[in-house]
Each structure stands twice: as structure tokens, then as C-alpha cells.
């Protein structure tokens, strides 16, 4: 029987119980009880490569999607333009707009547009928008423009470290700090608030790990401060 036929067959339950299988989900105890505070840990190898192998074995056509996509920057620029235009009209033109309408626009339009920025910053962090790293960094800064908090260059730095040191305590910036685990544990409310603050946690974890800010993080801070000042000056 050809090997490709075997690879295309559904994974048997026994394979999914094998820690080496890409679809293995772990054997730790799962609980939603608020009094369970321990952090789930395992000793599996880095999962991204296994997932890639599993996906390509079933869908080799995915390889056709590999490469850079400059259109991402165009979409990012359009999103920034939409959000800044809305900010200008609400702050300078529709000055008598009811507060409920402002909240609705901020939630429906602003929230929807803002959801794009995280994806764009992620793609730029992996140099998947342009081939040249500089243009990817600039794309990240562009997407960061309406976000108030400087995050794109810190995300790029720490996310790449996450891929390099995935799951290693004290080195993987995606791993929660001991203080986070103790504070949040299994509280649904605290988890919800934690998700809202997650972008800032990259910077906080970096500070706790005593990582010195890099040059592009300083550029990001300066860029965001200047952008925030201009937005307040001309759009409010």
C-alpha cells in the first residue's frame, strides 16, 4: 500500500494517545474548579513542527500559501485610515453625538478594525508581509499607530523568543509569571480582565525578566507618543 494512502487515513485513537502524535492533547487533569491553582505542565517537544508535518501530510496544497503578502500592509493602512477618520468625525464634526452612539461606534467599528492590528503585527513580526525586515517593522509601526500603547516592536521581539524558547520557564515570554498564576488562577472574571491586558503583559514580563529595551522598542515608544499627541491635538 502506498505511504501516501496510509498518511491520509484518519488517526487511530491509539495514535492520539501517543505523546509523539501531532494531535496529542496532553494527559493532565483538567478542571474548572476555582480552588485548583496548579499550573498544567508537560515535557513534550516543541509542537509547531509536528503540527506543520500533520497539516502538510493531509493538505500539501498549503505550501502554495507560503511566502510574503504585501497586501497585508495595504489592508493595515486602510484599517488605520478608517479608524482615524472615525476619530476625527466623532471628535471634531459630530460633536453633539449622543454618548451611546459614540460607544456603539467605538465597539462595532473600532473593535472590529482593531482586531486586525494584532494579526498584522504578528505577520510583520515574522517578516511575512515584505521580504525586507525593515519594511515589516514599519508595517508593525503603522498598525500600532491607533493603538495608544507601543506594542508592535516588543511583540516582535518577545514573540520570536517565544518560538525560540517555547515552554522554557524564565525564557519564553508567553509563559505566565508565577505572580500571574497566583493572582488569576481559575477565576473567570480575572481571566477575562487578564485577556484585556495581555498585550501589555509582554512588556511587563520583559521587565520582570530584566530584559533591556532594544533600539526598535525605543523607536516604537517615540512613534506612539508622537501619534497620540497628534491624535489628541487634531481629533478631539
Write up what this structure looks like.
It comes from Coemansia helicoidea. This is Sphingolipid delta-4 desaturase. About 60% of the residues lie in helices and about 0% in strands. α4 (about 70-95) runs antiparallel to α5, α5 (about 100-125) runs antiparallel to α6 and α5 packs across α7. It has helices at about 5-10, 15, 45-60, 70-95, 100-125, 135-145, 150-165, 180-185, 190-195, 200-210, 215-235. The longest helix has 27 residues, at about 100-125. The model is unreliable at about 1-10 (pLDDT under 50). It contains eleven helices and no strands. The chain has about 240 residues and is mostly helical. The radius of gyration is 22 Å and the shape is globular.
Question: Summed up, what is this model?
Answer:
The chain has 236 residues and is mainly α.
Task: Identify the notable features of this structure and list them briefly.
11 helices; globular; single chain; Sphingolipid delta-4 desaturase; 236 residues; mainly alpha
**What's the order of the H and E elements?**
HHHHHHHHHHH
Largest sheet, strands/sense/barrel? none
Report the count of strand segments: 0
Number of helices: 11
Helix/sheet category: mainly alpha
| Distance separating the two termini | 70 Å
* Gyration radius over CA: 22 Å
Q: What is the 3D form?
A: globular
Helix content range: 55-70%
Beta-strand percent range: under 5%
Low-confidence segments, given as residue ranges, are 1-12
Overall average pLDDT: 83
